[in-house]
Amino acid sequence: MATRYPHVGIVVINWKRPDYTVACLRSLGALDYPSYQIVVVDNGSENGTPGLIRDRFPAVKVIENGRNLGFAGGNNIGIDHLLQSGADYVLLLNDDTEVAPDLVRILVQVAESDRRIGIVGPKIYYYDQPDVIWSAGGAVDRFGQARHLRIDEHEDGSPHTVRDVDYVTGCAMLVRRKLIERVGPLDERFFAYFEETEWCARARRVGFRVVYVSQARMWHKLKAETRGHSRLYQYLMARNRLLYLKCSGAGPWVISRAALGLLRTAASWSLRPRHREMRPLSGALVRGVGHFVIGRFGAPPRSP
Q1: What is the residue-averaged pLDDT of the chain?
Q2: CA separation for the pair 261, 144 (Å, rounded)
């Protein structure tokens, strides 16, 4: 009897970074898994990238949104297309990543081992430091503070593990079709950041497992120190952390405590000399808290 391989749909969001997207697609071309299709969702790049991808990768479906719908909105477009095409699983993948050839095969094997597993994520390394871990799953505390597990640790040759985690990063997450049909797609109010964390929380609330698989590997072209010094990043992380708490059913006291902590951080950045380099970002935190309070979600302001 021939082996049946669940069909995997892969969504890659492209936004003004054609070199990254091309490198990501080349790495996907080396996958050893026999049943997958790729959709690139272009979030209004306006730089000719969709045509470039169509020329170089004729087997890849390209969907042009015409505008930036964010990580959540862009991925939802791809997810909807792939579910209509019959995908059993959907893999969300950042454009600034490259994957090991066995990534999809290992993730699917783990997901197929237990029907309760709804979301699976790999071990992710820094691309520029290929033996240093960026994420090995994630944990979230009661106040919505999220952190990657084993971040910045060097690979130590530990035995391969499969373990339950609070969330896996949207940089790479394999999601079971039945989970999406049960809990719905990503919440587009987040736009970017925390949407995958909330998705994982939604999955766990209805009884699905979220697991990290150390044997599945990929590499992320990320410079954490650059992202942390972005006003947009700080704005979205502040606003969306509070939205995550609200979606998760946290009470007013917990949300207020988290908001107060963010405002204290902004004050510290503004007033303390040792945080001088973060001073320009303090206003973004305050605005993020304020926009949560007034219910302004979705696409961020041009100057957060």
Answers
A1: 95
A2: 11
The residue behind tokens 């066995």 is: 102
Whether this model's pTM surpasses 0.85:
yes
Crossing angle, helix 49-56 and helix 18-28, to 10 degrees? 20
DSSP class of residue 277 equals: G
Q: What is the mean pLDDT of residues 293-298?
A: 98
What Rg value do the Cα atoms of the chain yield, rounded? 19
8-222: CATH number = 3.90.550.60
pLDDT digits (tens, 9 = 90+) for 215-240: 999 999 987 556 667 999 999 999 99
- Residue 67: half-sphere exposure toward Cβ, Cα within 13 Å: 4
Token look-up 């994982």 returns 200
Residues shown for the chain? 304
Cα–Cα dist 266/278, whole Å:
9
Distance CA 8, CA 112 (A): 12
pLDDT at 293 over 70: yes
- Answer whether 40's CB lies under 8 Å from 18's CB: no
Residue 17 contacts residue 43 (beta carbons within 8 Å): no
